[in-house]
Amino acid sequence: MKFTKMHGIGNDYVYVNCFKETVEDPEKTAILVSDRHFGIGSDGLILIKPSSVADGKMEMYNADGSQGAMCGNGIRCVAKYMYDYGITDKTSISVETKSGIKYLDLTVENGKVSAVRVNMGSPVLQAAAIPAVSEKETVIDEPVTVNGREWRLTCVSMGNPHAVTYVEDVKHLDIEKIGPEFEHHPMFPDRVNTEFAHVIDRHTVEMRVWERGSGETLACGTGACATAVASVLNGYTEDEVTVKLLGGDLKIFWDRKENNVYMTGSATTVFDGEIAL
User: Cellular location of this protein (predicted)?
Assistant: First the structure.
């Protein structure tokens, strides 16, 4: 199988051009290639496929083989791949995902894509649609007990479920211990991605993320979007915010008139290769 290793601010995936390649068992393949000791090493597998309704289709799998609906960092790399490898010559493209069609604007420098702006769509705040079990219609700054401690959660779906909580210190958080407690909490029937955020000022938030199926990653695009939305809902920031993640920064803008969230960030190709399956 021919592949390309790419990352969006450290959130790395193995990408396969399914305009040319066929992946028979993507769940098993995702587990194999993601292993950082015996495989290629990645947060998961992303297949780039033809689409009847868009310029291309993104099909993503987490490191444990489970399928995800959407990946913000991943879709930027999909856009870069499609342009850099000649699938499209357009600088405004559409990509089909399990959470709908996303629209992307490409910044091209010296013939290669250097940055991508993604219309991530509307945030979903209704608890039942996230899904999050709650007696209230929305979960905004609600107290929830996790592992014997009370946390205040704001829940948002950006095509996949997120729980955002605010902490004083993200750097020394024992995320390996507490992350799985959130991921498998009975409040979240489909599991959840958890963002531990600290507000620096009205335009800047720093964040670490525990992703369902992958553990801590250096960055999560949908998580950054969810954190920006949660920060606005809680009155912490303005509508446009820089989210600082372990792998780098993402610029997020929630256009509340359109009710669309826009994410801008880099996309990087690491190397091309082949692997025997």
Answer: Cytoplasm
CATH architecture assignment, domain 2-118+265-274: Roll (3.10)
Put simply, whether the predicted model's pTM sits higher than 0.90 gets the answer yes
The ranges assigned to domains in the chain are: 2-118+265-274, 127-258
* CB contact at 8 A, 69 and 101: no
Structure tokens at 13: 């995936």
The answer to the question of whether 119 is labelled as a binding residue is: no
Q: Kindly give the residue spans of alpha helices, DSSP state H, lying in 21-69.
A: 26-34
The verdict on whether residue 194 carries a ligand-binding annotation is no
26, 109, 170, 217, 231 from 165: Cα distances, Å: 33, 37, 11, 17, 10
Distance, in Å, from the CA atom of 47 to the CA atom of 31, rounded to the nearest integer, reads 14
pLDDT in tens, 167-226: 999 999 999 999 999 999 999 999 999 999 999 999 999 999 999 999 999 999 999 999
User: Are the beta carbons of 54 and 145 closer than 8 angstroms?
Assistant: no
Residue with tokens 């996303």: 102
Q: For residues 56 and 59, what is the distance between their CA atoms, to the nearest angstrom?
A: 10
Span 127-258 CATH architecture: Roll (3.10)
Fold equal for 2-118+265-274 and 127-258: yes
Known catalytic residue: 71? yes
User: Residue 91 has what DSSP assignment?
Assistant: S
Angle in degrees, CA 88, 31, 180, rounded to 5: 110
Take residue 235 and report the two structure tokens written for it: 């009155």
Q: Is 18 considered catalytic here?
A: no
Phi, psi (rounded to 5 degrees) for 80 = -65, -45
